[in-house]
Amino acid sequence: MPVIVLLRHGLSSANTAGILAGRTPGVSLTEDGTRALEATLRMLPHTSFARLIHSPLLRCVQTAEIAQTHIEVTETRIGEEFVELDYGDWTGRSLADLVTTPDWETVSRRASAMRFPAGEAIAEAADRAVSGVRFLVGELRELERLEQEAAQRPEPPSESSAAGEKPKPAWGMIVSHGDIIKAIIAEALGMPLDDFQRLAVAPGSFTIIDYSGPFPVLTAMSVTAAGLAEAGVPGGGGLSDPE
Question: Which segments carry the region annotation Disordered (predicted)?
């Protein structure tokens, strides 16, 4: 019965500057982003996680470190599959400039056909991220199976209070980037990648997907404590909100 929380990194210096950071090193959280992230993490409906996997980029490393002050985690690791898109020649450019390029229409309406100049295709990034989620879901299900087997073993009377109890779902957390999280949500909803720009994931927000049933169920999306005060629009994280 795995449940996965997708946590977007907090507001970064690139977000506030309107720059497409991509994989540029050294892009860190702002003070406001850190404060907002702390407030949002206090809203998490669950605080015990079997796995926390984060992008290797600094803003996600910082976000994961802050998250670990609010939750208990059995295992933490870097997940290259959840690293930001390689925007190639678009990296470091302003969004105001990029919206004037011929490729912007493709990014907005035909994402599955877009490969960034000298960079990565959106479809490739979506595939690696979705594969990473599937691996994590399988890992969590195996942990649940082992826990169930342990609960069913005969125990001495003094230690048998948990015997027969229904195993609790294993929770995992992925700390990643806006477009990566949107691609994961789109796949979970059965949404074509070409429509993923209809989703909005605000900086520092969490999204919850329940993988316990025959198909994934989106139970919460782009939750932030700051809400309109930070994002300016409901949910934030739209095309006007670069990495």
Answer: 147-170
Q: Hey, what are 226's tokens?
A: 């700051």
Q: Which two tokens stand for residue 194?
A: 């070409």
Could you please report the per-residue DSSP string of the chain?
A: --EEEEEEPPPBHHHHHTB--TT-TT--B-HHHHHHHHHHHTT-S--EEEEEEE-SSHHHHHHHHHHTTTSEEEEEEE-GGGSPP--GGGTT-BHHHHTTSTTHHHHHH-GGG-B-TTS-BHHHHHHHHHHHHHHHHHHHHHHHHHHHHHHHS---GGG-TTTTPPPPPPEEEEEE-HHHHHHHHHHHTT--GGGGGG----TT-EEEEE-SSSS-EEEEEEE-SSTHHHHSSTT--STTS--
Unique residue bearing structure tokens 């999280």: 181
pLDDT, tens digit only, all 243 positions of the chain: 899 999 999 999 999 999 999 999 999 999 999 999 999 999 999 999 999 999 999 999 999 999 999 999 999 999 999 999 999 999 999 999 999 999 999 999 999 999 999 999 999 999 999 999 999 999 999 998 888 877 777 766 555 444 555 667 899 999 999 999 999 999 999 999 999 999 999 999 999 999 998 999 999 999 998 764 554 555 555 544 555
Instruction: Say which CATH number the domain at 126 has.
Output: 3.40.50.1240
> Which domain range does residue 26 map to?
3-151+166-223
The domain total for the chain is 1
Cα–Cα–Cα angle for 4, 219, 29, rounded to 5 degrees:
60
How many other CB atoms are found less than 10 A from the CB of residue 100?
A: 7
